[in-house]
Amino acid sequence: MPSLCSSIVLFLHRFLEENLCCRLSNQMNLEAAVEAAVEFLNKAAKPVMIGGPKLRVAKAGSAFVELADACGYAIAVMPSAKGLVPENHPRFVGTYWGGVSAACCAEIVESADAYLFVGPIFNDHSSVGYSLLLKKEKAIVVQPNRVVLADGPAFGCVLMEDFLRALAKRVTSNTMAHDNYRRTLAPAGEVLESQPDEPLKVNVLFKHIQNMLSSHTAVIAETGVSWFNCQKLKLPEGCGYEFQMQYGSIGWSVGATLGYAQAANDKRIIACIGDGGFQMTAQDVSTMLRCEQRSIIFLINNGGEIHDGRYNGIKNWNYTALIDAIHNLWNFIQVQSEKELKEAIVVATNEKNDCLCFIDVIVHKDDDTNKELLDWSSRVCAANSRLPNPQ
Ligand SMILES: Cc1ncc(C[n+]2csc(CCOP(=O)(O)OP(=O)(O)O)c2C)c(N)n1
Ligand SMILES: *[C@@H]1O[C@H](CO)[C@@H](O)[C@H](O)[C@H]1NC(C)=O
Ligand SMILES: [Mg+2]
């Protein structure tokens, strides 16, 4: 069977190229890739550049910034790469995820005549149910070991970092896409002050979390309401950010908070965790206490799960009692209003309380939807519930 044979050969070739032979760039391929990319990009009227999650494995973050500085393009980040692209860059336009993007970001990316995707992973989640309005012929895709231009050619054995740095030296600066963005952008909606005793709203909570962020903090976002709200946080320089987009597996964040704090004890973690996700892996809190970690956990307690999904509603725990059972010396605060929330944040960030703080944030059961969550869910659901392709 020649076709099976040739696919095996192709697979092996790709595998070897990705895994073995590519510790150094092949200089000829590198030069050819840069030459082709320069030609492609320099003839575009309003090119843009988007950072993807493979920037991490390729260790190409600073090369990305070097190119971002040199090219003048509008700079966006894929949701799964949040934290890998500096959001304080003067031409940063926000998270690109199709219909649920930051204001004006999708319009700028999708209307560009050339887009440079650096390390993207396009799956059902990051592509919002395969609804991105992108055209292959307008794209350059840079992966850790290869560069693909539009429908071809592809250049193998080219390391992302080398490619980005070489391109930075050759590309012509073009700020057209960002100039358009500035003209189009409407002022962001302000969150109104709550009335005294008004139940706490999720967007009010995140307004206060925003103010806690600095280069000494890292955000960990659980799947659910937190995913969408954390995605809209504006990260100051050096602020860490982690979430699990590939599978969106709930419960991930509790263990991630434990691991991150152990590895990076120069940063205080601000973990935003839904009650459903927390109940899957709550026991990791015990190890956090044993290791004397000092994370701040916001439990977003809406007494259950995201809208329209009552299929797995949950039992509301007595979190005070849970915490008592594990340990009785750490800070546990329950808040139901903006005033109480503000007081809790003062306590949690007080130098004297440099220990684990658990803030049980009671929000209304139905205050769990926002525009992005609704829009994203319906698109991903439509794509994932389609009939299988006929064999
Ligand atoms: C392991 C796993 N099981 C099920 C799901 C489907 N799912 C996505 S969000 C969610 C509800 C999460 O509830 P909660 O943590 O309270 O989130 P929130 O109310 O903050 O949205 C579920 C069950 C999933 N993503 N991962
Ligand atoms: C929750 O547990 C605490 C501590 O054990 C207890 O004092 C409190 O009464 C409990 N709350 C409810 C609503 O049962
Ligand atoms: Mg919940």
Report on the architecture of this protein:
With 391 residues, the chain is of the alpha/beta class. The chain folds into two domains: 20-184, TPP-binding domain (Rossmann fold); 202-373, Rossmann fold, CATH 3.40.50. Helices cover 39% and strands 16% of the residues. It is built from 15 helices and 13 strands. The chain has helices at 2-19, 27-42, 54-57, 61-71, 105-110, 160-170, 176-184, 202-212, 225-231, 252-263, 275-281, 284-290, 319-326, 338-349, 371-384; strands at residues 48-51, 74-77, 92-95, 115-118, 139-143, 146-149, 154-156, 217-221, 240-243, 268-274, 296-301, 331-335, 357-362. Strands 3-2-1-4-5-6-7 form a seven-stranded mixed beta sheet. Helix 9 links the parallel strand 8 (217-221) and strand 9. Helix 4 runs parallel beside helix 6 (160-170). The protein is globular and about 65 Å long. The model has no long low-confidence stretch (mean pLDDT 89). The chain binds thiamine diphosphate, 2-acetamido-2-deoxy-beta-D-glucopyranose (NAG) and magnesium ion. Magnesium ion binds next to helix 11.
